[in-house]
Amino acid sequence: MAEVFSLRVLLLGGTHRRASSSSSSRNSLKPPLASVSASRKGPHTHSHKTQKLNLEVSPHRAVSAVRLMRIEFGGAFADLLNEKGKGSGDNEMAYVERTLGFCTRDLDDRDLRLVTDIVGGTIRWRRYLDHLISSLFHDEKAFRRMEPLLLQILRIGSYEIVKLNMPAYAVVDENARLAKVALRPGAGNMVNAILRKLVLLKETDSLPVPKLEGDDRAQARALAILHSHPVWMVRRWNKYLGEEEAVKLMEWNNSDPSYSLRANSGKGISRADLVAKLDSLKVPYELSLHMSDFVRIKTGLQNVIQAGLLKEGLCSVQDESAGLVVSVVDPQPDEQIIDCCAAPGGKTLYMASRLHGQGMISAIDINKGRLRILKETAKLHQVDGVVTTISADLRIFSETNTVKYDKVLLDVPCSGLGVLSKRADLRWNRKLEDMEELKNLQDELFDAASLLVKPGGVLVYSTCSIDPEENEDRVAAFLLRHPEFHIDPVDRYVSTDFVTAEGFYFSHPVKHSLDGAFAARLVRA
């Protein structure tokens, strides 16, 4: 469910509602602003209005601050690229103007890379950055009461100083200027003072570090600050993995993510063809060790997008862990397959490409908008002849549907705990209470999907989670309710390095350098 597969789904970062900002946080005591006609037309600007252009404020910091506001309070994602294959600078600047009351110069490619680095890093390290910032306040209540935009600016400056090692004078000066222009002179003075203190602490190697002491709860709180994760996750991973492995996992989650590209064989594109394209773009890559259609890239994704490789349907952005789930399904020509929670559709499209134009994949999802994108992408990839979409709630559909399928893929909604490296914001959006709700939903969907499997057919249950309560425990509970199914070990479909003792597929982020994922292959009697 959490995989990213195409330009439109991966990169529609500017379509969510923004966080509102208080008009009282702006005033007239600002550097001179030039009023210019609105040559940029973001999604919410109008040509008859004018924009206040401020050339003194750092563009990437202004965009980063507003984007962080939208992610934390407005539900936006951490991507900063759009479906046209370019940075969504126009969209972002529209949000900056509405939130801050001015716009800056256009974002260039370097600015876009900085925004991506700063937004992703600041989100990942949010808990640790807040620890540093709050330690510099005499009154913790003052820190807790801080207005959101001011806090985002301080987080950006702290991240640039502590993690990016940017020149201290520039970081302090430019973030203080942003606070002064966007808020008021006093806010700029506060940012200046706090960041100068932080620079001094860093230069004297005296940054505040929480001590790993006390009971399990106290140690988990310290680890949660050091590695910037929610305390409940740390305690959960300590329980299931042990502290040493939990720390390794958090270090992986905080590292810069790599991405995999899948050559679109449905359009006749081989991996060799894709590699030739990457060579021409001078994008470094590694061939996947596990999947013959995949290559990995650490840098250069923006170049791939701007060159139109995704827009033309030559490849998709899809993690190998998701591709391995498709290997577990093992789609074959002439089979009737249903993907039960299909959107955004990465696995649907990959399965379709492996049918070689023979058979049919029914993609069912409750979200009509995402299904529409799936249909458009299937056409782009030239696999629309074997893909049909069904907009429905699986639990209702399965009760009235009379068709039985050769293979059923149930990629359930899950916690996403296996993809925290790519989804930097997800760790802060998940709560412990979510796990119980998700498990109940997973059980309901599991039961519903089982009704669609013909005798002798295959049911594959998969997640992008590393949590046993969403994985092995759900399968065990299902088999108790449905003795007509039995486990089909996956060692015939994926490398034994990914096969658990129970015969399930499992990719571990630290062990395999992939997103975490799980799949169980079950056969109906």
From TrEMBL:
The terms describing its cellular component in GO are: cytoplasm
User: Where does this polypeptide localize?
Assistant: Cytoplasm
Ranges for the region named Disordered are 16-55
Establish whether keyword Methyltransferase is in the entry: yes
User: Residue limits of the SAM-dependent MTase RsmB/NOP-type domain?
Assistant: 249-525
Which residue windows does the record flag with biased composition (Basic residues)? 41-51
Q: Which UniProt keywords apply?
A: Cytoplasm, Methyltransferase, RNA-binding, rRNA processing, S-adenosyl-L-methionine, Transferase
Name listed for the protein in its UniProt record: Ribosomal RNA small subunit methyltransferase B
The protein's organism comes out as Morus notabilis
